[in-house]
Structure to design on (589 residues):
């Protein structure tokens, strides 16, 4: 029982982590809480659904297709709604702009697809593995492996490549990075693209795993993922991974052992408790205030 | 007052009357957010939580314990203020987006609590709340609140609020007890949230935990940011525009929210500091006297 719940929590947590990464990367560079991120995740789920049901592709193509689509969508949103505000307005106006985008995108999806909950066609065979006394469904294995691969890939990109170095430079000091000849706008655009692609992957996998896709699925998932990013220390990439996974596990454990009617309250309760003890999150850096 | 209401409802269409009442309630709620976020600079994104506490407390008191309208409203507002203090205490340690997350989380916990709250009818909500709130009561309360807000912001406390927003360290160095002042801001803001919630419950006749979700908090915060942070006239203007906008956009029916979302983005691109950002009543008065006014960017 306990180990099965742990496995379920790990699965849910990996998807939270994928969404949280987008929040934390964008926050690390432009200090913006991208409230439209949950809607990008929802668009990813729908793009995958479209590919799987109308083009009959397999799960890998659906995942990659949705990721590519959301990359473009993320860059478009950044170009239209955030770039014009950058540098000349307070962070709060950018936040309101993000909320505007979020309302726009979810309404757009309601108009396109209706408010009904939709189901994925059977893209993944209902196969169960037995390993070490545990039952793994094939979808759980796919979620765990694919998320791990994406996170490792991201870590490699940030640490070892040229664009990753540029991203780290921008997150330290945007102005200094600009003076060093880094094309800051391109780096920010790229960050949105990567974050959106990760969210899309999460969306498709959650859509298949829970067999439900609907236009408002992004709101609560986005809030939980933001909570995960803050829990891990916002701006920190490993923090988002750890925050997402631990939030997923704690939530599933809370539902299993405490009460299912308080499911949504558990995640936020834990978050508040952790922040009271460690105000900068689990892996966040404490910034001492200077006068 | 009742005769006045009767006269007004004779001459004004019920639909417009309803919008005017909602504008009044939203002004009270938005002024609470303006005090916490606009004036003191502490980002709160969970004001609907305070609103629901006020709404439920006053509704239960007036329906099941026979409290009078005024007593129920006050009790609801005081209960919300108490929660404001409880939630305000973490602000001692948290800043900026971490604080925003805690307020979102607290509001979600309050919502889930009411979803499981037996006396509040759980997810079904409460119906049959006496409809005491009228045009006159709302606007009377709103006017009193606006005047008190103006007085508060021109007082010693008001200057302390602004000082914390501009520079907390400098404020502390100037002898302001920043902790106490921040909690005070949260308390008064939450009080207004609870008051607005109570007025809302006694107008709507029916309340439900889903009325006070995250989107409600965001809608209220939008009013303050759109109107201009820290500005009382701005907040009032923001409440007017954002209460009217969804109604005016009814002509585009199902595209309503699409336009609303786009409107927020466009307004933020062209008026990043809000419509009346950094305009205070005091400055307006000076402008009318044709004196030089300094406005500043923050």
């Amino acid at each position: 029982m306990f180990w099965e719940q742990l496995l379920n929590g790990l699965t849910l947590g990996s998807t939270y982590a994928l969404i949280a990464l987008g929040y934390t990367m964008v926050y690390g560079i432009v200090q913006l809480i991208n409230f439209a991120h949950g809607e990008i995740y929802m668009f990813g789920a729908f793009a995958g659904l479209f590919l799987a049901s109308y083009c009959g592709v397999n799960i890998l193509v659906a995942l990659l297709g949705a990721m590519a689509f959301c990359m473009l969508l993320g860059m478009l949103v950044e170009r239209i709604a955030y770039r014009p505000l950058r540098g000349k307005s307070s962070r709060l106006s950018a936040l309101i702009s993000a909320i505007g985008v979020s309302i726009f995108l979810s309404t757009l999806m309601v108009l396109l697809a209706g408010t009904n909950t939709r189901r994925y066609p059977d893209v993944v065979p209902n196969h169960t593995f037995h390993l070490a006394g545990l039952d793994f469904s094939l979808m759980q294995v796919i979620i765990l492996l694919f998320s791990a691969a994406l996170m490792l890939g991201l870590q490699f990109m940030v640490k070892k490549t040229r664009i990753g170095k540029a991203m780290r430079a921008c997150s330290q000091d945007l102005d200094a990075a600009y003076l060093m000849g880094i094309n800051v706008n391109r780096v920010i655009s790229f960050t949105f693209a990567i974050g959106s692609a990760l969210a899309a992957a999460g969306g498709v996998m959650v859509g298949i795993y829970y067999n439900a896709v609907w236009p408002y699925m992004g709101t609560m998932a986005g809030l939980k993922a933001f909570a995960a990013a803050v829990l891990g220390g916002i701006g920190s990439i490993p923090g988002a991974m750890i925050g997402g996974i631990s939030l997923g596990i704690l939530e599933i454990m809370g539902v299993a052992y405490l009460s299912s009617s308080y499911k949504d309250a558990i995640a936020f309760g834990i978050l508040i408790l952790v922040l009271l003890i460690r105000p900068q999150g689990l892996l966040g850096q404490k910034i001492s205030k200077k006068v | 007052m009742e005769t006045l209401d009767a006269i007004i409802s004779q001459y004004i269409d019920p639909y417009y009357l309803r919008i005017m009442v909602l504008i009044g309630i939203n002004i009270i709620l938005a002024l609470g957010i303006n005090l916490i976020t606009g004036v003191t600079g502490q980002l709160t994104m969970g004001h609907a939580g305070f609103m629901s506490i006020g709404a439920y407390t006053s509704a239960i008191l007036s329906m099941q314990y026979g409290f009078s309208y005024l007593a129920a409203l006050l009790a609801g507002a005081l209960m919300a203020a108490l929660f404001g203090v409880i939630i305000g205490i973490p602000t001692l340690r948290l800043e900026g987006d971490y604080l925003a997350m805690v307020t979102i989380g607290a509001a979600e916990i309050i919502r889930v609590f009411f979803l499981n709250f037996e006396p509040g009818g759980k997810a079904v909500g409460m119906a049959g709340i006496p409809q005491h709130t009228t045009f006159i009561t709302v606007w009377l309360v709103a006017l009193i609140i606006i005047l008190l807000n103006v007085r508060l912001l021109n007082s010693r406390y008001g200057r302390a609020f602004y000082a914390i927003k501009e520079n907390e360290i400098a404020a502390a160095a100037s002898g302001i007890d920043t902790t106490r002042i921040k909690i005070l801001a949260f308390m008064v803001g939450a009080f207004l949230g609870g008051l607005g919630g109570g007025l809302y419950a006694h107008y709507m006749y029916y309340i439900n935990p889903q009325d006070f979700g995250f989107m409600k908090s965001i809608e209220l915060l939008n009013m303050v940011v759109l109107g201009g942070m820290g500005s009382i006239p701005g907040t009032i203007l923001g409440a007017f525009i954002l209460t009217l906008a969804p109604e005016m956009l009814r002509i585009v029916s199902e595209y309503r929210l699409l336009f609303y979302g786009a409107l927020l983005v466009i307004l933020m691109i062209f008026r990043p500091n809000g419509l009346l950002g950094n305009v205070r009543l005091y400055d307006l008065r000076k402008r009318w006297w044709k004196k030089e006014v300094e406005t500043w960017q923050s």
Chain A has one domain: 2-218. The first helix of chain A runs from residue 2 to 30. The mean pLDDT of chain A is 86.
